[in-house]
Amino acid sequence: MKARNLFNTIAKKAAAATGSPWTFLAAVAIVVVWGISGPVFGFNDTWQLVINTGTTIITFLMVFLIQHTQNADTAAMQIKLDELIRATAEANNELLDLEELDEERLEEIRREYEQMAREAGDALARVRACHVARRDDEAV
Prior knowledge:
The chain is mainly α and 140 residues long. The chain has helices spanning 3-18, 21-36, 45-87, 103-139.
């Protein structure tokens, strides 16, 4: 098995395991046991160092694990969105590689879509006003 595939498999299993309620409860139990053991160790520096070192190492490793799974999820979602755009006849195909565009072009496209949203909202308001006017006419 290639290193990349091995890492992907381990990352998925670790992400599933760390996201479970049982893992959370285990973490809470570790913190409680550590807290209760404070008086036994006189709340000394070594006692504090144990939890600090443990949480630092776990946090450091989890950053890479989370980033890997986030990258994979984002890539999958992007492919799905690209397919929806591609399959829609009236779609703007420029949006297929939107994440590759520069900030200036992204801002232009955002403004275009905001304008379309305003126009759609205005049209909806006119339709609603028309329906209200018809009901008022029918009530008379």
